[in-house]
Amino acid sequence: MDYNTQIAANKIRQIIFLSSIITLGILLFLQMTFLLSSFLGAITLYMILRKPMYKLVYEKRWKKWVSATMLMIISFVCIAIPFIWVGFVLVEKISPLISNPEIITQTAYKIQEYLNARFGLNILTESNIEKLTSGISSVVPPILSSTANALMNTIIAYFLLWFLLTNAGNVERWLQKKLPFKPENRNIVIAEVKESVMSNAIGLPIMGVVQGSLAILGYWIFGVEDPLLWGIVTGVCSFIPFVGTMAAWVPIAILSFASGDVNNGIGLVVWGLIVIGMSDNVFRMIIQKKIGDTHPLITVFGVIVGLNMFGFLGLIFGPLIISLFLLLVKIYVSEFVIAAEKKEE
Q: 243 or 69: which carries more pLDDT confidence?
């Protein structure tokens, strides 16, 4: 027997050990995917509340559990409750449209008749209207079902948040030791993760709230039925770059023209272009200076991925996941590819 060709017993044990860890890790991940949105929510809230927590504990000398309790209550009132409320409003208002898609079809036909008579445009053909109706019917239900689970996800997220806040120093020290990066890259990773989280979790919702609020006001002034619902939809559309809120207020304005309400239709167009549109430019500049900015392509693909994975919450977490993925790729290139090239030189 050629002992030189045998695999060392220690290597065999190591392979078995690593295989067992990987297998169990995959099984645990597959069984706990429903907690992913709660986990991301807890991390996002922790990044937002980290600085106030340190100020209360180390500057004000408050006890950790008191500081954590107060910050969690404040964040729940200011952040979680509004998002849950928006989700339930969407469920309540949009569910009838899904159960009766004929409403969507009739509205689309009405818009098409006006476009054809006024401008000779034939955009919403019968086949396109059918595709639009079936597309909405297939996309919206998963979002609504995920939104209905938002309360449970929030409870789990706050349970995890309590652990993160009360063990903040220990958790961060453990992460810094375990991060598989060079010491000089660890601070870069932490800084970029923080900027990415703040940009996606704070900047995008702020834009949505501002533009949605302005849209609600405009819809109320110009006689749009159910301005609250369509204002929320407009705020959600603000997450989509290039098109943005126009995806909401343009069809509403066209529908006003098609219904013969020309004055309100003109008012909606002016309000959408000047008030809602200009607010995007003004507030986005402010957010870029204060928080940071996310590349439009990251937002586009992040929203698509996020909606499929998390439903309504994916509007925030989708871009965050893509940002983190690109960050890890960047660190990998810095740690291994560039380092290898330098060694070869």
A: 69
